[in-house]
Amino acid sequence: MVLTHTTNHAYSHPFPTVTLAFFLRYCSPQLNPFASHVLSTDTISSHVDPATGRLHTTRIHLKKSRMPPAVMKLLPTSLTGGAADKASYILETSVVDIREGWMATESRNLNFVGVLSVVERQLYTAPVSTPTPTAARTDVETKVVFRSRLGERIRDRLGQHAAAAQQEGGGWFARLGAHGIQRSIERLASTKTVDQLGKSREGMHMILERLRHTGLLGVLEQRKRARAMEAM
Amino acid sequence: MSQSLAKQCNEVKERYDTCFLKWYSEKYLRGTGSAEDNECSTLFKEYSKCLQVALKERGIDKLVEDAREDNKDNDAAFLGRKKCELFQVAS
């Protein structure tokens, strides 16, 4: 069971600035109000490949659960552990090739994968026709793949302990059908994500505008001031 | 940047983030950032040392390992496909 969603978008900013905005997009809710659901961001690795000159970065974001409440309601608490309001860990990997003018990113959830796995892949490219780095256009293709393995797990369990499962939750699944449940989860998540994609794009636009007006140092200064306010 | 998931790492993370962003915009994006360019690496080591403890405590290191193992093939396929696409666009 897989559901895929693909969108294309063009930023009217040069490629290098867009990649910088990608790294800055969760820097502070004051700078990007669309990132208020991001609780933390950490870099676990970052290196330049000496052979290709590509920058490889891995980060972990902690976000307030993006699992739609409707999905959580569909699930028996024995599966979710009543985890409806828990946060999700997101693993983000990115590769930037400044010479060839592209950045490939991937974000996936680390927990709840048994219920729903969401993998978002983005490819940012500088326009080929105008190869100067100052060309104010960057294209991005976003592909999100939703996969619910819920039914598979339940079927496995049914196979192993048919009798036990019948009493515990087999009846519930028999009524709705694992197929239908997977589809519902994927559809609900997909609808929510499309909404979210719009917001993340708006957030990128806000960071890009700040960069255009004040440059990186201005953004860093603003972030510092916001942090100082928080600490008071 | 936003907070670290471990409060005790916030300060060193902030210093590393600032260093990285400056290096990225002033050097890497201008094509002068090399693999040996390690002005932020001392800060990163310090930050990483702090972060690894927190990742282990929360079992996140294990989750990351699983995700990476699970997707080695996918990643290779993805990067391969991407290069093909770029090639098609370029040609």
TrEMBL record, chain A:
Residues 1-216 form the PRELI/MSF1 domain. Pfam families: PRELI. GO terms for cellular component: mitochondrial intermembrane space. InterPro entries: PRELI/MSF1_dom (IPR006797), Slowmo/Ups (IPR037365). This is PRELI-like family-domain-containing protein.
TrEMBL record, chain B:
InterPro entries: MDM35_apoptosis. The keyword Disulfide bond applies. Keywords: Disulfide bond. One of its GO terms (biological process) is phospholipid translocation. Coiled coil: none annotated. The keyword Disulfide bond applies. GO terms for molecular function: phosphatidic acid transfer activity. Signal peptide: none annotated. Pfam families: UPF0203. One of its GO terms (cellular component) is cytosol. Belongs to the TRIAP1/MDM35 family. This is Uncharacterized protein. It comes from Schizothecium vesticola.
